Structures are given as structure tokens and as C-alpha cells.
């Protein structure tokens, strides 16, 4: 099971995701509410995996992804996305995202994706 | 899938923040402020709201936010413009969202009824005259790949789960992951079509890799991906058209962003947490109990005079004081919380009345106890609506009287010694004292003679009398059957005062003076007929001695003459029982009106915690709360408002 950093600008989504991941036996090592915080927490915590929201204040998820990948090319990042954001997710994938989960989150799908990305 | 009740509170709270952000940025857009930032902010908040409401299963709200997000996505890319009618539509949407949030907070589920037609309108706006650059952006051009360099080549037949929400992204992830362990020589259908999601059913990938079958199997059986077939392909075709995509090598990341991110982190030191207000109230109660019990301990210590005990008690005393101050500070909230709602109100009323108003807010950072915030909202709304509705004139009228066509409305807040002062000032028509004079007579509030002799201040003071409204007609905006008398009562219930200054033709200014907190006040402790009671020091003018002869009967009441002033005298017999008349009087004041009460003794001045009467005791006229001073006695606090 992995050590996971959750990045989302709302506490609501973070809590939701935290509970799903926790139920899958993962260890939530930290949370960040924007892209700036995401990079800082990543460097501080070195998690196995990051779940990254795309639309966030200050630095958005794509930019944060790029920054984290620049700092650590082996970083495993899963994008949190919603229907209609295909283009953004593609951009993220091209920038090195390893997977994506779609809101509203379905626990089995989230856990499956996390497991697959962690084991890859 | 999860217990939604557990999330409801958090959902409502964060949704309200996003809702407010949308409203304020819509207004900023309308004012011509930084357009791009405002559009981005609205888009972001609409998107966030959509995601959160979808997670809670509030479909109606999700659909509405989704439509708003779509519209702003078009605006962001420059394919639509923000028009006045769109702003109106969007503000109506935010109203609908607010109603939904209210419903959700109350434990319900919002229905499509409210939002269905709005979604249609938004869609119509998004769809009309869709420009042609809708073609999915495909930024990779096919280019010939290098020839296979002798590694084994495999053919993979893969299917994406039909229930996948973004099968194009799935396909793209798969191809990208495969590329990490090999070279994709070709795909059927083409990679371009796969990445655009233009495929049904399984597809084939020809890949050259030396990672081995197992590695390929692992990658090709990821989330929502199933590997149907994997076979070793014999020959390497000479030249195969392949799409390489334009994935950035991981090393080449724009440097400035990283630096920006690191730099911003250094400035981010404040960490906030959210605390349930009820918990804060409970904590406040406990701190108050501590304060009370400290007082009791001090009295006990005084009786015994143990040095060590006194020292320890001293230390505790200091900690309790610090704790109390800290607690008071935590309960403080910036007035912005309620001010932020007002620009919208000003806009709506101004639009409705065909007026132009520039609204300034200053001092939103001024803090007030959160317990008073709720009570302040309605009075402020009322005064602001009034100012636009009745105060500020239409542009034509203003131009005719030599004023700029755009009226100005200024809301300022500031801390002044022990009080918070809030002023609402407009440069509108003001109130004509002559009209007040006539109205005072016609409403029977003054005799014609009294009215003729009344000073301007007295006339203006009539505005706060029940049923006295200067507007000729009651409008659906200001006149909701609530007058300034209610505003005044509300402010007084917050232990505040309200004053109005008006200059005919020049404008009107309301001044609210409020204590920053209601929980701890200075009181004068007195004995009335052998019983202790507390009087808020803010209501006490002086303590005077009088002689029985100075007391006169006027009709049913008694009055005394004190330094050329006749003051009604209350003995509070119905509260404390009949007693021998004492000669000590406390003169009380509330809003320029005075009276005095007879007391046995004045015991001194003290800072106390006022607790509201419990629901069991109910409202008790004349008593605003109780306090428990050091000795553990329960002492009523007089409500001077009801006496003067």
C-alpha cells in the first residue's frame, strides 16, 4: 500500500478522497490545497503517489504536475478530473501523469487506478 | 457510496465560499476590473462546485454549475463575450445556487425545478452561433518513425472498458506507458484516432520492445484496459508510419514555474484550521465557567490567607485571563464576511430603480464577535437598500441638481477605542425636515405646535419611530413592512446605538456604534431592596444622592428634579418588591433619554461575563441576562432599554 499526497483546493474533496484511499489501506501522508503547496509538500514528504486536482487557485494542477516531474521525474501522479476535461487530462498525460480518476469518485475505480499506478 | 451526511456541512461551507467568489467576480467583471482574473476565478469556482455537488449526488446543482462552467469555458477561450444580459442570467443562477445551498443545509436535496430553465438558457447561450474552431485540437502530426533496430516486435490487441469515462485518455495513457518500455511502430486505428477517442471496440498496437512479454502484459492490463491478445510478430516492417506524440521529455520542464512555486512557499506561513462554531461556543462557555470559578477561589483564598495557595492562584488567574482574551480573539471575525454580500444588493436595487451607484467599502477587516455578525446583517441590508432606493436619485434628477449622475454610497467600518463604528453614507437627496414635520403631525406623533417647534434632530429621530416611513410609495425592494424602528431595535439588542444625520439635497449618513463583543461587559453592581443586580456601565450616567422632598408625583409616575432636569424615577418594585425608599439614585441613559432608579447601595464596578437567560426561563422583560460574580451568586443584569 502506498504513501499518498492528496492535492485539491477543497477540503470536501480531500476528505472524500482521503476516506476512500484510507479504506483501501493507503497511508495519507499529506494534503495540499494548491499547486504551490503541492510541490513543497512533495519535496518534503516524497510520497509514493500524488492525486492532483486540475483546477486550483494560484498554480493549477498541470503546472504543479510539471513542477513535481521536473523535481522528480519518477514521481507518480494521478489526475483528478471531471467529464469535459479530456483536453486538460491529455495535456497532463503528455506532461507525465500516470493515471486519472473521474469525479464523482467511485471508490472501487479510484482504488483500482491507485493500485495499478503504484504497482507499475 | 458514502455517508453523505458526514460531508454535508463541509460541502455547504466550501460551496458558499465558492458561490460568493462567483458573485463577487461577476460584479468585478461588470465593473470592468481585471477581466481575465475574474473570468478564471468564476470558471474555477463553477468547476469546483460542479465537482463537489456531483460527489454529493445533488444533480440539479451539478447540472447548473456544469452549464455555468461551459459558458465560462467559452468566454475564457474568447469565443463568447460577457454581456449585460448574460451577467443577469448568471446572477440569477447564483441565486438559484444559494437557494439550493440553503435547502441542502436544511437537510434537503435541491430539485431541478428551480434550475432546469436556467440550464436551458445557459445552454442556449453556449450553443448559439458556435464558431468553427471547435475541431478537437490535435497537435501531433504523423511523421515517419525510425526503423526497428533489431528488438523483438509484438502485436497487442487491447480493449478499453466501454464504461470508461474518458476512453481517449485511457488509450493515450496506455500508449504512453508502453512507450516507456519500447517503440510503438503502428496502431490500428491510427494513434491520432485513438487519442481522440474515435474508436469502437478493440485496437491493435505493433510495438518493438526488449522488455519481454510480462512487462507488456502488466502495462496492457491497467485500469479499464484489458489485453485480449499478445503475439510475437516476426518481421519488422521497413518503414511504418507512426505517431510519436509530443510528450515532453521529463527533464525539460519550464524552469520559472518551479522557482515561482518554491518562492511562494516561503511566504506561506499562516496555517488555518476550520472549527465548528458550536464547538467554539462550547469552549467559550467553559472559559467563562473558569473565569467565574477563579473568582470563587479568590474569595475562598482571601478567607484563609495561605501564601502558597495565593501564589498558585495568581498563576492560574493569569492563565485564565490570557485564555479568555485568546478566546475572545478567536471569536472575532472580519466584517468582510457580511460586507461581501452587499455589492450585489446595491447592484440589484440600483438596476431595479434605474439608478447608477458607485459602492465603496472600507475597513472590511475590522473585527467583530461572530455572535453579533448574524444580527447585523439585516439592519445593514435594510439601510443599504434604503440608501439606494430612497436616498440616491436617478441620474437625470442628479444631473439637474448639478451632481455627478453616478451616486456614491460609502460603507466604512473602523475600530474606535472600545467600539466598532460602521457608517453608511450616501450623497443622495437626504431627508427634508419639513416633510418630516408634516408627517409627524399627520401620523399623530406630534401636535402641530410641538412639530412647529421641534428641532431638526428631534424630527430626524422620528425616523426610528414605528410606522414612520418617509417614502411616498412602498416599493418591493425597501418597503417590506420593516421600518427603521426594527433596525434600531436590532442594533440595540446588540448593545449598540444608531444615529442618523441628513442634509436635504446633500445626502444621509447612518452611524452604528457597536461593542466588539457582547459576552464580557463592565457593569456596576448595586443592591436594590436587598437584592444584587448589575447595570451595564455603558448605560450609567451618574450616581446621585437625593432627598425625599425632591421626589414629585406626576400622574402615576414619580419624578425627581436633578440639576434642572426632570427625570422619571423607577423603583423597580415589580421586579424586586416594595422597599423603604432609599436616597441613592443611579441615573441611566439610553439613546439620549434618561431616567433614574432607586438603589440601596452601589457596590462597585466589575468586568463580568454575561450569559443569556436559558430557554427554560424564557424572555424576561427588564433582564438582559445573568452573570455570576466571584462569590458564585447569580445576579441579573438589568436591560436598561426597556426602562428608559
Explain the overall architecture.
The complex is a heterodimer of chains A (120) and B (644). Chain A has 120 residues and is of the alpha/beta class. Helix content of chain A is 48%, strand content 22%. Chain A has helices at 11-23, 35-45, 61-71, 86-94, 107-119; strands spanning 3-7, 27-32, 49-53, 77-82, 99-103. The radius of gyration of chain A is 12 Å and the shape is globular. Chain B folds into 5 domains: 4-127, HPT domain (Four Helix Bundle (Hemerythrin (Met), subunit A), Up-down Bundle), CATH 1.20.120.160; 149-235, Alpha-Beta Plaits (2-Layer Sandwich); 278-334, Helix Hairpins (Orthogonal Bundle), CATH 1.10.287; 336-431 and 470-514, Histidine kinase-like ATPase, C-terminal domain (Heat Shock Protein 90); 520-642, CheA-289, Domain 4 (OB fold (Dihydrolipoamide Acetyltransferase, E2P)). In chain B, helix 10 packs antiparallel against helix 11 (307-331) and helix 13 packs parallel to helix 14 (370-391). Chains A and B meet through helix 1, helix 2, helix 3, helix 4 and strand 5 of A and helix 1, helix 2, helix 3, helix 6 and helix 9 of B.
